[in-house]
Design a protein that fits this description.
The protein is built from 15 helices and two strands. It is an all-alpha fold. α2 crosses α3, α5 runs antiparallel to α6 and α8 crosses α9.
Length: 334
């Protein structure tokens, strides 16, 4: 076929064309095997091709060669081996028993972790040769993949899941208290943290820089929110903090917004986030007799209390057992 239908996608699918009826099925088997291998992200077995060829035969009865390939492709796309990342358990493995995963499954794990996408030809080739489990080969592949533009997924997917950045989409600060907060600013906050995490990985920076970095990435909208002049345009750029009041991840607007109430900051939510997300040590349930936090409190001398002072007063008598933990984690950021 020529014309509109003859395009790169069709040529990638139809890697062969039968010139006689006897060539149709062998050609279809090769096409189906190649497509299934790419879709299933593993070495294809004879049983896989045989099952798919049943769909080819059904489609070919009415649609000829192309109709058969089309139906086989539909079966591939509907298969759980394509939709899900399924790993094969070796024969004879008891429930709970530890075993080495297959080379193809290892390639798939690595690729989806680093790129958020199926393994490429180089990974598949190494897996088929049984070389991917070699520690040196594995390290070389990790370095290669980190230098690939697709490694951006490590920041957008891994960092988002670990740091719970997706929760920012559900945060709606009080419009009267924060009239300038909008979706554009929220997206900029998320992107700041993604770029920051990506920079740490790509530049192989020390892990403590996650908390101590004196720089971040901002565009004009976010810089204006931070009160930083001189940043123009929608593109993000690296920026050094003008003073020491803001440092590292815990100074990012994304984290500060997620760990606040709609109309005020919350050192309790922030400390809980630090314990759960960064330290992996969730705090115990709070004591039942903690007094309600008053939005505006008064000190004994008649002065209004700050948020920090009000929380300190509320916890002084009822939460003495939590003081060491609180001092370690809840006042970690502005």
């Amino acid at each position: 076929m020529t014309g509109v239908s003859d395009n790169p996608t069709r040529r990638a699918v139809f890697t062969c064309r039968p010139t006689a009826p006897a060539e149709a099925r062998p050609c279809a088997e090769m096409i189906v095997g190649n497509l299934a291998g790419d879709a299933y992200r593993r070495t294809i077995k004879e049983a896989d091709v045989s099952a798919l060829m049943d769909f080819y035969d059904e489609g070919a009865q009415e649609g000829g060669f192309e109709g058969g390939v089309r139906m086989a492709l539909q079966a591939i796309l509907a298969s759980p081996h394509f939709i899900f990342r399924m790993e094969e358990v070796p024969d004879g493995i008891a429930p709970g028993e530890i075993y080495d995963i297959g080379q193809g499954d290892l390639a798939s794990r690595l690729s989806y972790f680093m790129w958020g996408a199926p393994p490429d030809a180089e990974l598949i080739e190494l897996a088929e040769r049984g070389r991917l489990s070699n520690s040196k080969e594995f390290e070389q592949q990790v370095l290669r993949m980190l230098n690939d533009p697709r490694a951006e997924a490590l920041a957008t997917r891994f960092a988002s899941q670990w740091l719970r950045l997706q929760d920012l989409e559900d945060i709606h600060p009080d419009a009267l208290t924060y009239p300038y907060f909008d979706e554009t600013l929220s997206e900029a906050m998320t992107r700041e943290t993604e770029l920051f995490f990506s920079h740490l990985v790509e530049e192989d920076r020390p892990i403590l820089e996650l908390l101590t970095a004196d720089y971040t990435f901002v565009n004009e909208r976010l810089a204006r929110h931070y009160g930083v002049p001189g940043i123009i345009g929608p593109e993000f750029q690296k920026m050094s903090y003008p003073d020491e009041t803001r440092r590292g991840l815990l100074g990012h607007g994304s984290i500060l917004t997620m760990t606040s109430h709609a109309d005020r900051t919350s050192p309790v939510l922030r400390g809980k986030w630090v314990l759960e997300v960064l330290l992996g040590a969730p705090p115990p349930p709070p004591p039942p007799d903690i007094p309600a936090f008053e939005e505006v409190g008064e000190a004994e001398d008649g002065r209004f209390l700050t948020v920090r002072g009000a929380y300190g007063a509320a916890s002084r008598e009822s939460c003495l057992s939590l003081v060491p933990c609180r001092h370690r984690s809840d006042w970690v950021s502005p």
